[in-house]
């Protein structure tokens, strides 16, 4: 405890008295803290704070209330926030209070922040309008005036003796006490009613409200009334008053201005980028500055940035491509102006989402005393590339083969554990037209050349066609084939290093074959050393399975125009009994024995049957199957139906397919 607390507890004689005094002390402190925080909430004003700073301060006070044991509900905190706002925020406060659905602090913060941005835009537009009024409304004299109504700025103005004074819409009062506008009530530029300005108009946030079109051209700030882009040959840069038209925008922190023909200067608040979509291609509007009363498209900037030219005719205008002279856009003349066509969908302007790199490289600079802005070009950040480089997305292939052997995909799979026959790899060949697959087990990768020659002789003689193109990776086993392909006239395509996705058909076929092959081994509880027989059987089944890619035809049917014979299919690894009468040495030998089905012989119209006890493989057409019995699962019943990699019953040289009567060496 602190020294102060110990002093208060020095007179206590029991622990109960100590806790009673401590409770009384801190209860009163918590109560006082809660009262002071409520007073701070009720008296805090936004003032010169930004909306983000103000809401953050109010939330901090709300958190203090929660820490004192009396948390505020959202409605109560929102009421404190509304109380501290200036009169400028009355329209948005009224609109939010009128809502029937519950409000959250986050939603109120979002709405107020958006309203604050609109206020800044309106004030900038008002400053521009007052500057024009000051330069036109005073003839033959020079003086100083201070605005006392609205948000008018203070400044100097010089008039011309030949220019008659014009009335303006700002209720200002000079130092001499003269009242501007002859005491007339202000007229709202949105709803056209007198007694209030557009900043206080109730309809400002009503999306269903439509103003009178007769006054669309008289508004001094853009609130969706006139959203057209007008082509302007006298503008050196694009200007707008609507920030929502900009896809990439950033607040301008410099001191340069945009000067109009009257000599008045507009402070630049933001700078950004937008896009106008046409049926042929996008037109980019670069380096758009704000604010302005109208959306103006600089003809010079439009033609320079997009390599186009414009043709102006009495009743229409054309935007044409400089290179091809084709018409990209056609617009009509409207009341002496040439606006870009507004028949595009709402998202036509600024439909491009800015990337992080664009935000990083967006650093526009201005030339003093002019409106020339440096061209915004996308740059590459060296540090980001070093830190974040990754594979780019792959585009979808749209090429379609129309005949067999037009395109062959090939790849080598492995290295796998050595099979019973000593194989560690296999090479696959896939016909793009039919999706038919061939695989050849290999002991070494160097055998790829020999296996391709075998495959080439097989298919070219079967279909009386030549292989046109072959796609593969640039592995060492394929490099010696490149010169061979050049001699025989086969187009050779290879994937980039470490870009296996470019040979995606072969990679996906690997996955299909391996998954089906492992499933066959697992179901029959066979050891992994039989993976080559399982994979050959898997390819045999895949070639006879209907495919959605082939409109539910089988690869066999698409390539050979023959229906598959499903009656001959048997479960891999099941028990089988081949007819062994021809191999008996005397008449009392058994006519058959239990074997394991290892698949289909590529050379015979028969089945491969493994005799586990002798290590002999028989190939026979006269076989009886029990597809519910699996001999390998019965060898070690405790292991169940799973892969039995540890089983080593046969030497690696015993399981090559042989003709009847031949012994495995």
TrEMBL record:
Coiled coil: none annotated. One of its GO terms (molecular function) is nucleic acid binding. Residues 139-157 have a biased composition (Basic residues). InterPro entries: Integrase_cat-core, Retrotran_Ty1/copia-like, RNaseH-like_sf, RNaseH_sf, SH3_retrovirus. Residues 130-184 are annotated as: Disordered. Residues 400-563 form the Integrase catalytic domain. GO terms for biological process: DNA integration. Transmembrane segments: none annotated. It holds the Pfam family rve. This is Integrase catalytic domain-containing protein. It comes from Paspalum notatum var. saurae.
